[in-house]
Structure prediction request, 974 residues.
Amino acid sequence: MATLPDGRYVDDAPYSENENISAPERPDLDAPNWKLVWRRFRRHKLGLVSGLFLLCAYLMLPIAGFIAPYTPNERHADHLYAPPQGVHFFNDGKFIGPHVLPTTAKADLKNYRWTYTVDETRPMPLEFFCKRETYNLLGFIKTDRHLFCAPEGATLFLLGSDRLGRDVFSRILYGAQLSLTVGLIGITVSFILGIGFGSIAGYFGGKVDWAIQRSIEILRSLPELPLWLALSAAVPSHWGPVAVFFIISVILGILDWPGLARAVRSKFLSLREEEYVKAAEMMGASPTRVIRHHLLPNFSSHLIASAMLSIPAMILGETALSFLGLGLRAPAVSWGVMLNDAQNLAAIEIYPWTATPMLMIVLVVLAFNFLGDGLRDALDPYQH
Amino acid sequence: MEPLIEVKNLTIGFGTAEPTIEDVNFSIKMGETLALVGESGSGKTLSCRAILGILPNTAKIHSGEIISNTGKTPQNLLELNEKLFRKIRGDCISMIFQEPMRSLSPLHKVGHQVAEVLELHRSCPKKKIKKEVIAQFERVGFPDPKRAYNSYPFEMSGGMLQRAMIAMAMIAKPDLLIADEPTTALDVTTQAQVLGLINDLQKETGMAVILVTHDLGVVANMATKVVVMNKGRVMESGNAKDILSAPAHPYTQKLFAAAPAIPEASEIVPAVPHDDLILDLKNITKTYHARSSTPWKPAAVIQAVRGVDLQLTRGKTLAVVGESGSGKSTCARIALGAELPDEGGDVHFFTEPKATPLNVTALSRTERYDFQKQAQMVFQDPYSSLSPRMQIIDTLIEPLSIHNIGTKSERIDRAKDVLKLVGLDSSILRRYPHAFSGGQRQRLSIARALIMSPKLLVCDEPTSALDVSVQDQILDLLEEIRDAQQLSYLFISHDLAVVSRIADEVAVMRQGRIVEQAPPCTLFANPKHPYTKALIAAQPEPDINRPINLDLVALGAGKPSSWADNFRFEGDDVPPLQELEPGHMVRCHV
Prediction:
């Protein structure tokens, strides 16, 4: 520290004026945008865990048949409403590897329900890579290998069985194939419509904007549930489950796009004011070029976040429709169809495991929300 | 006398990173004005926010203390709990922020917002509070305090809002007023008036003022003590007089060297000849129709530009100076064909001397392509003028790829050339703009404008978002490029000092009209129009012996009907531009 005679304080640390004007001022931000987003997203633990969970869930879909011990419509007439069974490792205090204990059903005619007794004396080891019912691996490879299954004479209902003696665990896995993809197809439809109309409205403005805005308002003012019902009731009943599934997701997408179109439009309006967009226009860039090179890349990340937040709505929509019996129908398996079976409150009270698809729905919807939140927070690399 | 506030060895950091401000010391006594001077990122705002205990959540105080003598006994403000602190804020210490538009709630009447301070800190009847607020409004210079009490923030101009903010900060008669860049968002003439007001109020109440600013001119006009900060450290601190007359630290010296100033009157230079023009704007008027609030009322008509003629000589710089709303940016956009003038206006662009002019207001498709190659724009905000998703290289060569010029490798070579021209290294080509500072980005923005070798650059406030030292570098760069490439500039600015060094001819605009036009030397040596005089007088100079002459400012910045006889006009009955001496045009009656 140096103090001058007039009482002035002057810093005496070495000071150099020459700076390298090409050196980045913020070396910590010296990376492409996706890297910066990833760096920030990594810090959002809940979002990260949700993302991993969803990734696993979606990766599991094509091989659901391999993981599931049973096929979705395989019935066990002797095990109706069987409670969940655990996989045990120790019997009589001795380690004997993974095994199940066989159960036998007995009709309790007084309370009018099934009661199960577990036979602890006969531990039966699980079989791995065993041959059982045939299914299509990845959708087209016919095979009968399962990752694990119950030995002959025993059952393996990890989450219990339902009214017809079908394994709830296997059905949840199969149901995920439809329930999780319905959101993806729906969001694709919604994206194409929403981005298309939203960017047209946002970029051109004026009369086009007015027309699109009004049609969005009309679409949004229609009560959603009756509209779903009407549209799904219009699906011919002789169509196969796959066609119905496809139509349902398209319907969900068609009803979802207005929200997205509005988000896109408002983002467009604010981005249009950015000077780099004006600069491109003054250089002579065509509207297509401006939209493709400047506007879309700059809000693609916002789009992804808002997609993450609208997929759950689609999943819930499918569930609601199927629950009401207007969406997918048996023999197709989805979480909504499974819950349709669990409509009876008394049944849920006595056999609560039949409602486990609900738990799955909650988990998936929450995961999508957390992931969407995490992404949204991570998107702006300029914030600290 | 005991110091009112004493900041001792204050060190604050974010997370685990290096401290953002380190070992900051300063103190202030009653009646003093302490100026915290520094460029962006110097930690001046953080230091004064620490005094009020309003640091961002992630900031951590590593060490230091802030001793306050506002109460009966000295207390360390850093150890105070929230509840006790709330009693101090607004009552003993209050703050004025930079953006008056954003510091008042748009939902509440201005009067009520000011009254809230008294309601929180004094227990007295509502009627008395209202009376006090209105008296305070009168004190800060509202012409009609009762109406001001009942208006909403959006009904007021920026200068009036800042007065309301000052009233709010002063109403509880604090011991210390912290003003964080209180005039940065305001026009120069308004700035001069607001600074004068703060000075008057201080003299009246004897409070202490901490003034955070980047403008040495403001410091010279206001401060008794100065603390110069750079990168979180105090470079120099002491009495304003000593520092301003003989800066000791090299950083302070650099700041002084970079501070733009209106030159002392020098010899009269000959007028710029208008025989070889590159750009000719004739009789430009631009009317905007704002949609009215109700369909049966006629649409509001806003005349942004009214009958402006501008002639830019090849290889010269024509500066258009004016405050916000003067129509200068509209002129720039019209000159580039981005907007069309009203019927009767013409914009001509001459590619070569004596060539047939391109009519910018009616370009065919191919002509427009040609014109865009020759005329480019440099924007104001370096943070928004580069797309954050594009690598530098893609941003730079975009004009070439739009116009389909050259092969890929030729484009990259050209990009490297222009980077060299603006003083940057070609190693940054693959980087993204967010890693760079405002000055570096402005260089990139200039490089992009240069890549097609244009003949005309329109610079719309290219330095107003930059720090002084960076502003100095960018102006140097612009001058260098102009001379090397024989460019012509149409330079839009609100800052006379910036313009004085770069322009060959200056046009001063007010409310859509040119009021005076001359080469800068002539203009500063011999300003004729009261508005030009006001602008020059309002420009804060980093010289303690040249305080702002507020009377001159108030006179020129007032309504045209209050000007001296030969300049006065009412409504649209405007006097013509008269050539008083060669090249010196003034709007006046002869």
